[in-house]
């Protein structure tokens, strides 16, 4: 080979190395992970393996309600997770369902909506953690029956919205729940798409909502908003490419939780089951994926808690399996 050809190959290789070194973070990074361990196994979920269960958290105790088995049979059992131990609690009185939502206000948890096959629900039930009993919320949810909605608590109120009907109608409406009156009030929302299986987490006095699957188009939503109880603010797209950042955090059915001043999403589905972990920093309105990937089988439809400065991700499903393992995430990177 002559000197000119050697020079060409050398320059081409140098260009490739420079390009790869400058590549910004995306959702398909296959670099071997050699950093510190952040995921370890916690106490296995005592109930049957399941996906798409409802969940909520009261203090340092997490709760799991319902979900679906591998056979697609829906469940109505309920469990608590405290001090690394799982315990059964009184069965959910609303019947078997999956794709329901849960939230907590004070010492009480709430579960509602969801579906059982071709039937969707618009009811909600209250769980009193002090008495260990469920009661029916007498005033039905003010919107259409749905599954795959998002829910969060902020300032002593709960907010529930989006999702889909069993007829395949996408939704983007949102409602405020007042525990003092058990009443619902429709509120303004500014989403650019109707989506199911989105995610939400709360940092300080703001909730952050986004992601999910757009009904109709089949695209994964890049919407991401903050909400302070009065105003929605559109944040940087989940699919971002500009002079500062390049990343794609779009997904549905992800596990979402907050630790300190950061939000996290782990796993989920974007045409394939995902296992990477993204961290959201409100101070820069940006996402990074420098954390260790989920160490269990990659999954969607898991439950998630934030207890003692750690994140917990349990149960969930892939195309052919349901899971009962429980993993704890300790951010050290």
Notes on the protein architecture:
- It is built from one helix and 30 strands.
- With 333 residues, the protein is mainly beta.
- It has one domain: Neuraminidase, CATH 2.120.10.
- The strands form nine sheets. Strands 1-30-29-28 form a four-stranded antiparallel β-sheet, with no helix packed on it. Strands 2-3-4-5 form a four-stranded antiparallel β-sheet, with no helix packed on it.
- The N terminus is likely disordered.
Task: Reconstruct the topology from this structure.
Layout: H1 3-22, E1 39-41, E2 54-58, E3 61-68, E4 74-82, E5 85-89, E6 101-105, E7 108-112, E8 115-116, E9 119-120, E10 124-128, E11 133-136, E12 150-154, E13 157-164, E14 170-178, E15 183-187, E16 195-196, E17 199-203, E18 206-210, E19 213-214, E20 224-227, E21 232-234, E22 239-241, E23 246-248, E24 255-259, E25 262-269, E26 273-281, E27 286-288, E28 303-307, E29 310-314, E30 326-329
Antiparallel strand pairs: 1-30, 2-3, 3-4, 4-5, 6-7, 7-10, 8-9, 10-11, 12-13, 13-14, 14-15, 16-19, 17-18, 18-20, 20-21, 22-23, 24-25, 25-26, 26-27, 28-29, 29-30
């Amino acid at each position: 080979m002559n000197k000119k050809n050697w020079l060409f190959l050398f320059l081409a290789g140098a260009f490739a190395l420079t390009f790869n070194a400058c590549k910004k973070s995306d959702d398909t990074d296959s670099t071997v992970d050699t950093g510190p361990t952040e995921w370890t196994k916690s106490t296995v979920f005592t109930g049957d393996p399941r996906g798409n269960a409802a969940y909520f958290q009261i203090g340092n105790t997490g709760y799991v309600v319902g979900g679906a088995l591998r056979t697609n049979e829906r469940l109505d059992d309920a469990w608590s997770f405290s001090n690394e131990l799982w315990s059964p609690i009184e069965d959910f009185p609303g019947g078997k369902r999956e794709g329901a939502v849960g939230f907590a206000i004070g010492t009480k948890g709430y579960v509602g909506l969801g579906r059982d096959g071709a039937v969707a629900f618009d009811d909600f039930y209250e769980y009193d953690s002090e008495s260990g009993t469920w009661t029916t919320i007498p005033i039905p949810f003010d919107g259409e029956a749905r599954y795959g909605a998002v829910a969060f608590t902020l300032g002593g109120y709960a907010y529930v919205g989006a999702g889909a009907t069993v007829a395949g109608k996408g939704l983007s409406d949102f409602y405020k729940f007042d525990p003092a009156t058990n009443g619902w009030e429709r509120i303004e929302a500014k989403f650019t798409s109707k989506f199911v299986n989105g995610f939400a987490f709360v940092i300080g006095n703001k909730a952050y909502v986004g992601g999910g699957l757009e009904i109709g188009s089949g695209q994964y939503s890049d919407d991401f908003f903050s909400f302070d109880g009065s105003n929605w603010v559109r944040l940087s797209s989940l699919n971002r490419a500009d002079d500062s950042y390049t990343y794609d955090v779009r997904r549905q059915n992800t596990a979402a939780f907050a630790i300190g001043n950061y939000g996290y999403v782990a796993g989920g589905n974007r045409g394939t089951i995902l296992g990477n972990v993204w961290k959201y920093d409100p101070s820069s309105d940006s996402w990074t994926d420098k954390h260790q990937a989920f160490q269990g089988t990659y999954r969607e439809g898991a439950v998630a808690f934030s207890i003692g400065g750690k994140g917990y991700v349990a149960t969930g499903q892939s195309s052919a399996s349901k899971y009962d393992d429980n993993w704890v995430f300790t951010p050290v990177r």
